[in-house]
Amino acid sequence: MSTSLLPQIDLGNTFGAVFIGAALAAILFGLSNVQAFIYFQTHRDTGMTFFKSAVIALWTLDALHLALIIHCIYYYLVTNYANFDSLAEIVWSGKLQIALNMFTVWVVHSLYAYRIWIVSTGRSRILPVIVSIIVTLSLGVAIVVTVEVYRSRLFTDLVGIEWSTLMYLSVITFIDFVIASSLCYFLATSRTGFSSTDSFITKLMVYTINTGCLTSMCSMVALITCAVMPNNFIYVAVEFLVTKLYVNSFLALMNARYYLQPNPTEHVVISEFRAHRPSLHSSEQKAEGLQASQMNMFKPHHDEESQS
């Protein structure tokens, strides 16, 4: 790139935006560390289970994604400082972090789909199957975007594949809506008539909606900035945050028992969250037995964790 073209590059809304996005991504990674720590502390008395393995896998993907982002920043702003020829090219770690971003989001969506399958136990499997199919098909969209990105050599080439980015962001936003709606539907139709359980279900519904809205809003911001400003990297910076928010949203769901625990002597746990209340007399024990039977639909067939 010749020196005469230097004034055309606005480092503020390109690599400056990416730098800010990387800093915010690092903060969110720290939050995911805290959430992972809380999860393992609250489940320290159990052995290795499916969900513990899932948390470890998500943390590993999250850490690797941040490492790739840091390499990108270091490559452009340190190693190739003022080298505008290199600034025009997409470094390998930049391409890989995009692929890892989409794979991590797909893994989170798959885990949500599995949760929906669990809470639908004893009822029609039509909705969980539909959600699973949609999530599976989204992997195809991610593969298409990955192929297009790896075909691109310069950042200017990304403008030509803007359609694939917009399609992907639209798909994951739609899946967020489907997953949040499905979880809320199964929770709303699972009220037991017991005030403590129904209150917890209501809180869990609000919690699910809030975490789903957070990821959807970030995806929408990335979608809008990509559509309106495809010639800068603001949407890339926002996409850095998408992966972190998805990981944190799932970890937050896993830690709902910790966050939503009503008081030290009573906590109701659905699926991952079991019901435990001190037994005062036989009638209360019978009530708990009925309550537990009505909540069997929330218990997985395996890999279920308990907390003493």
How many helix segments?
11
Low-pLDDT runs of 5+ residues are: 1-7, 263-308
Which whole number gives the mean pLDDT? Answer: 78
Rg estimate, integer Å:
22 Å
Question: Biggest β-sheet: count, sense, barrel?
Answer: none
Instruction: Tell me the strand percentage band.
Output: under 5%
Structural class: mainly alpha
Distance between the termini: 64 Å
Helix content: over 70%
Number of strands: 0
Pattern of helices and strands = HHHHHHHHHHH
How is the topology of this model organized?
Blueprint: H1 15-42, H2 50-79, H3 84-87, H4 92-119, H5 126-151, H6 155-160, H7 162-188, H8 195-228, H9 234-254, H10 256-259, H11 282-294
Describe the structure in your own words:
- With 308 residues, the protein is mainly alpha-helical.
- The chain is built from eleven helices and no strands.
- Mean pLDDT is 78; it is low at 1-7 and 263-308.
Question: Quick summary of this structure?
Answer:
By secondary structure, the protein is mostly helical. Helices cover 72% and strands 0% of the residues.
Q: What descriptors fit this protein?
A:
mainly alpha; globular; 0% strand; 308 residues; disordered N terminus
